[in-house]
Automatic annotation (TrEMBL):
<keyword id="KW-0067">ATP-binding</keyword>
<dbReference type="InterPro" id="IPR003593">
    <property type="entry name" value="AAA+_ATPase"/>
</dbReference>
<protein>
    <submittedName>
        <fullName>Nickel import ATP-binding protein NikD</fullName>
    </submittedName>
</protein>
<dbReference type="InterPro" id="IPR014138">
    <property type="entry name" value="Nickel_NikD"/>
</dbReference>
<keyword id="KW-0406">Ion transport</keyword>
<keyword id="KW-0921">Nickel transport</keyword>
<feature type="domain" description="ABC transporter">
    <location>
        <begin position="9"/>
        <end position="259"/>
    </location>
</feature>
<keyword id="KW-0547">Nucleotide-binding</keyword>
<dbReference type="InterPro" id="IPR027417">
    <property type="entry name" value="P-loop_NTPase"/>
</dbReference>
<keyword id="KW-1003">Cell membrane</keyword>
<dbReference type="GO" id="GO:0005524">
    <property type="term" value="F:ATP binding"/>
</dbReference>
<comment type="similarity">
    <text>Belongs to the ABC transporter superfamily.</text>
</comment>
<keyword id="KW-0997">Cell inner membrane</keyword>
<dbReference type="InterPro" id="IPR050388">
    <property type="entry name" value="ABC_Ni/Peptide_Import"/>
</dbReference>
<keyword id="KW-0533">Nickel</keyword>
<keyword id="KW-1278">Translocase</keyword>
<dbReference type="InterPro" id="IPR017871">
    <property type="entry name" value="ABC_transporter-like_CS"/>
</dbReference>
């Protein structure tokens, strides 16, 4: 049965505007959705429809001087919209993990992976440095990263995109976040790394009950991972349904077009 506790994150009447020279422009309007414990909501829509603006609003990472966020974003009952930077810094990384498309941007180039990993663990837990290193090595092992002790001494540029993506997931695994926002987590990866990353994300979901907001324009990834799907067009959610219903019986014209546009591999085509 669905209870209030099972709704980990609720977004109500989200409206995001950005200030232009002489007026304001709406980027996202009337967006409503919720994430349930241990489940995956896929957010799909073509480039520029407002998926990233939505996730940045949840994380309160939009520039406060140039944008306004109206509506309510509650994480386990706590209102995030308008929360101060210090409180949000505590929430980001611990309660909400963010896995982004270009993992290189998530790391500071001048610090080793180990320094950044251990600092993140220590800032959100009571671990000593030695315990944090042990936790980091264990988490890196669990996402099949080879020779974690050596990787901890490496700098971000020395790792591939797929490896950095897995380091981000390992960090998320250490903090047991209530919510993971994964914004195009596999777009920059080859097929093998895509599968690995999705597998590990799914493992965190099932082990810790994290709710995942999975943003992707890859409908194959969405159909494999999501329980429910929200379709966005021009800053609005035009259709929301469980994954089977959405793929089998799309209601909105835009959803139908999106589904028709996806590349299909016919069974009698030979894959070399
Ligand atoms: N800071 C900003 N100032 C002005 N416009 C912005 C700003 N950030 C985003 N936009 C605009 O808001 C719209 C939504 O952008 P957003 O990045 O959320 O799209 P998206 O759906 O995530 O696209 P993609 O799949 O390409 O990442 C776009 O038209 C974008 O140009």
């Amino acid at each position: 049965m669905e209870t209030e506790q099972s709704k980990v994150l609720q977004v109500k009447d989200l409206h995001v505007k950005v200030k232009t020279k002489n007026s304001e422009m709406s980027l996202v309007q009337n967006v409503n959705f919720e994430l349930k414990r241990g489940s995956v909501l896929g957010l799909v829509g073509e480039s520029g429809c407002g998926k990233t603006v939505t996730s940045m609003s949840i994380l309160q990472l939009l520039n406060r001087k140039t944008s306004t966020i109206e509506g309510s974003i509650t994480l386990q009952g706590r209102e995030l919209n308008g929360l101060g930077d210090k409180d949000m810094r505590n929430i980001r990384g611990k309660d909400i993990a963010f896995i982004m498309q270009n993992p290189m941007n998530a790391f500071t180039p001048v610090f080793t992976i180990g320094h950044q990993f251990v600092e993140t663990i220590r800032s959100h837990t009571n671990c000593h440095k030695k315990q944090a290193i042990e936790l980091a090595i264990e988490a890196m092992n669990s996402v099949n990263l080879p020779d974690p002790a050596k990787l901890l001494k490496s700098y971000p540029f020395q790792l591939s995109g797929g490896m950095l993506q897995r380091v981000m997931i390992a960090i998320a695994a250490c903090t047991h976040p209530a919510v993971i926002i994964a914004d195009e987590p596999t777009t920059a990866l080859d097929v093998k790394n895509q599968k690995t990353v999705l597998h590990h994300l799914d493992a965190i979901r099932s082990k810790y009950g994290s709710a995942i907001l999975l943003i992707s324009h890859d409908l194959g990834v969405i159909s494999e991972m999501a329980d429910d799907v929200a379709v966005m067009q021009n800053g609005r959610i035009v259709e929301k349904a469980d994954v089977f219903q959405l793929f089998d019986e799309p209601q909105h014209e835009y959803t139908k077009k999106l589904l028709q546009a996806r590349p299909l591999l016919h069974v009698n085509e030979t894959v070399i």
